[in-house]
Design a protein that fits this description.
The chain is α+β, with helices and mostly antiparallel strands and 140 residues long. 29% of the residues lie in helices and 34% in strands. The chain contains 3 helices and 9 strands. Strands 3-2-1-6-5-4 form a 6-stranded antiparallel β-sheet, sandwiched between helices. It has a 3-stranded antiparallel β-sheet with strand order 7-8-9, covered by helices on one side. This is ComK family protein.
Length: 140
């Protein structure tokens, strides 16, 4: 991946098949797999282990649930929903430009004008965003 093409987020696609949408700054890619398999694939491309990254993040941030995952200096993703939720999101905290509360949901704005609305409270998304930025800063 070039420096211009960054991952913005992963999202579970709704439908009869198990698919994961990966939104980049310039395009979208659909992985024919679960969100965890797609994330494992991206981690392996960067010579990283999902298990090791989770353990490292938990230790550094001293948290146990919905832990951010460091992939590289421009990609640290954080989950918005628990593992068992039918629709899951992993957002790249390094590409967020801003947040806006909309009722019980949050609109997440990215560097290139793209945005996504997630069904999660603003305070929660803001906290996870800050955790992912902290992790990215400490591991870069």
């Amino acid at each position: 991946m070039s420096n211009l093409t960054k991952i913005l987020y992963f999202k579970t696609a709704i439908g009869p098949e198990t698919l994961t949408i990966c939104q980049f700054t310039t395009h979208q890619f659909v992985y024919p797999s679960t969100i965890n398999q797609a994330i494992n694939y991206i981690l392996e491309k960067h010579q990283r282990s999902h298990t090791v990254q989770l353990k490292q993040s938990k230790r550094i941030l001293k948290i146990r649930k919905l832990v951010p995952i460091y992939i590289n200096h421009q990609t640290t993703i954080f989950p918005v929903k628990p593992q068992r939720s039918p629709i899951q999101y992993y957002i790249n905290g390094c590409t967020i430009n801003g947040l806006k509360s909309k009722g019980s949901s949050t609109i997440i704005y990215f560097n290139n004008g793209t945005f996504i609305t997630v069904d999660a409270p603003y305070i929660f998304v803001y906290k996870k965003w800050q955790e992912s930025l902290t992790l990215s800063h400490l591991l870069s």
